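ugh finaly. both done.
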Amino acid sequence: MQMTLQQANAIEQALFNTDGESRSMAELMAAAPLSGTGQDVPPWTGGEISWDELVDLEPDLDQMLEVARTLQPGGRRWCSNEIWGAVLKPQLLRLVGWSCLRRNPALRSSAAYSAAYRRIYDALPACYGCSCL
């Protein structure tokens, strides 16, 4: 049976957000990390997740996309892979995927990570003058 996004939200509220109010990213970052590997969160069975659905669940993803779009390469060398690995990917891992700070099964899925990764990484400017080429 497939899980819906509404079911995933209900699970998150039941497991993590008992007061029914959404928490800001700052509050989530300050919260105690999830125990273990998140085995207390049921696996996501809802299949693919669209970008719009992800942004509805985690608005900070839209801000990350805007940052990727507005980066302006300068100088004789630019490596988007360095920016991705050092800055964007660590932030993305906090928002979606298996190491997500939230206990929403949809956000903690590989489907969510793949969709967010593709959208944000593809928005980065092309590399030039680096060893990626």
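ok and the 2nd:
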Amino acid sequence: MIDTSFLGRFQPLDKIYCYDVFSQGFNGWMTLMPNFTQAPDFDTRESIVVKHQWPPVMLSSATYRYPGTHGALSGTYSLKLSTRPIVSPYDEMPIPGSMGHAIKRLSFYHSKRSRLQFEMWFSYTAEQDRVSSTEDLGGLSENSLRAFGMGFDLQERGNRAFAGVRYVNAIDGKPHRRWQYIYPAEVSDSDWAYGTEGDWCKRGVDPLWYGRRYPDGRHDGFQYVPDGEQQLCYNETDCKINWLYFRFLLDVQKREYIEFQAQDKTFDLRGIPVFPISAYARIEGLLNPLIWVENDAARRVFFYVDSVVISQD
């Protein structure tokens, strides 16, 4: 049953697909696994992206060395995404293990749909395994997290589309603090795959890890949100978690962005189209919400999700 006292933290549309409180379990969220489909022994298709090094999602009570257990906004456990303690420079392809990813596999069930919305309460921090500098607050480590994002992988009416936003927190150790939305640059399929010929992925698909990156923060898979600068609440140590609200609203009928909200700030994206991609086989009606995190230093970073609501009207 949906606890209406908890639901008051959200602003759902008329029809609720799912209300996931992770203190009650995984609710179907998992890491993105390789496609074990190739003969003769369930091998994976050759690709420049190596998915089997991504850390698995887990349920976490957010235990730290000093205070013990932090817990979650809604109870004891939250969904935890993490990275391995490895990193590449921003303008290079992300190396295996430098990103964490969570996905839930849904499909459209209501034909008269107009808008689709993703909401969640989240937090993030870096592992306090070292002091980053001799300056004041040298152990803050906020700039060890490069980026995080959320959105949808959709397929309907003969097209696939990725729609969502990401927060670029830091670039090679320097603060950036700007939002971007998913939309691919005018590049070839080869450039989309970092100059690789014949990779399975096409322009616009999986912008989380495909698409060239540039030293100033630009990315061939994303565009900057107008007036998209924002300083999020990040406290001084890894045991001081502040839960943040996020909401992303999409017009699936017009295939356009509408808006998203982070904390108490709403960003207007009306009229920005969602890039259509030729449909893939067997996945008509796909509605997969996505969450990901990426580090900016050779240390683990953690992204916590207390609860998620997916809704439509």
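summary for the 2nd one i guess: The radius of gyration is 19 Å.
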